[in-house]
Structure prediction request, 80 residues.
Amino acid sequence: MSELPEEVITAIRAGHKFAAIKLLRTRTGMGLKESKEAVERYAQQHNIYLRSAEISLPGFLGVVGVIGLVGYLIYFFFFR
Prediction:
């Protein structure tokens, strides 16, 4: 494929690898392997770093905080 859809290019430029692959598959009907290769090739040609996974630190810390609070409350009310 010589030219990617504009929305796929936008996702690649934002560093969203999985979203770009999914968009490309949806818009063109390409297979997974071909879409992945096309996205990675475009990113490499344009020196764009692609994130494979997105981790939200505030969300992660919130979950850890809630688990800690629940653990403390269980200890305080049942084992003290």
Summary: Residues 6-78 form one domain.
